[in-house]
Amino acid sequence: MRHRTPLVLVCAIFGFIAAGPTRAFTAEKTLKELLVEKGAITKEEAATIQETVLAKWIDRLTVYGDLRVRNESIWYSADPGTGDNGDNRHRPRFRLRLGTQLKIKDLLVAVQLASGTGDATGNNQSFDNFNSQKAIWIQQAYLSWNPSGARWVTLAAGKMENPFFTVETSDIVWDADVAPEGVAETLRFRAGDTVMLFFNAAQIVLDEDGGDDHDQWLIGQQLGATVEPNDRLKATVAAAFYEVLNATTGTFGQTLVQDGNSRGACPGVVPPVATCLVNRYHIIDLTAALNTRVGPLPLAIMGDYVRNLADTTTGGNGVGAATGNVGYQVGMILGKASDPNTWELAYLYKVAETDAALADMADSDFGDGGLSRRGHIAWIAYNPTKYFQAKTKLLVTESDGALKDDITKLQVDASVKF
Hints:
single chain, disordered N terminus
């Protein structure tokens, strides 16, 4: 019986919510006015009640999320000796992301949770293991400071959104789901009415192994400019340089090792584990994007050129055969699936050689994920409403290595944003 009063109160609250607006309870009336009208208290008693704001921060809080359900089919090239393609896969999957952003004057506090298996390049979770429960991970947790006296600078720290300018063709270096961990700095300057200059930098922790000679970091800088002469034309160019410190001192401790990169036995690990990098990585990434219109339809044309300036070989330290250290991708997107009854059609072509970038941060959908592959990407998407999207994506890839399969992948998605 002692739980009856709270239960009645909860039922009453849900009753008011379910009833919706009525003449007796409208959005214009305060709680005190409603109580007086119902005869629960007198006007004199209402005058003595001190009104309290339950949560002053509630107006500064943004809650968002998305849910994607996908059916993915993967076809591998048949074994030339047996004709066997038994590795083919057909797997339903989902991706769930829930995030909040709290604005406190010049400070932004951001947290995002996501489904997945804990790897850096994806939040997908396959339907598997006899309907077992699925895990939720911390995808983002960071602070961002944009001081009111210097809006041209933004500083961030934590597990954050990618601070670098990227487009769809940038996934040779950055999978769209990667949330770098470290600190970042962004500077933006207006040069006249049509030009914006920007500088992005980040110091990203890859793995902490102990000691200055073993900790692995990615240090990145990017300089770029955006020109927007009118509302029908926008062009952006950017040049980035990424250096991986202590790349060959050990494994990154990564959950998922993707195709690509020359790898060998990890130092001091017994029994031997052949997942450690044998080459250094000094990566340049040149990005260009043009946004315009073809009649009423938006058109985006983009491209990336990536090159690892370090000498790369299969054995590292100049030992073994030279490996490919170049990647590039070009593409276009016609239309934009966002508003109700809008659609988009895209095509991209990508070449990603073995040691052009860090394979374990590259796109996880291209082939089996990573590098050492080339091929075609196409998709069509349609939004019947602003919040719902249907999308079909096809990836047809060839291996740059003799021992790897050619892979065709078909993804059919239904996504809701909220």
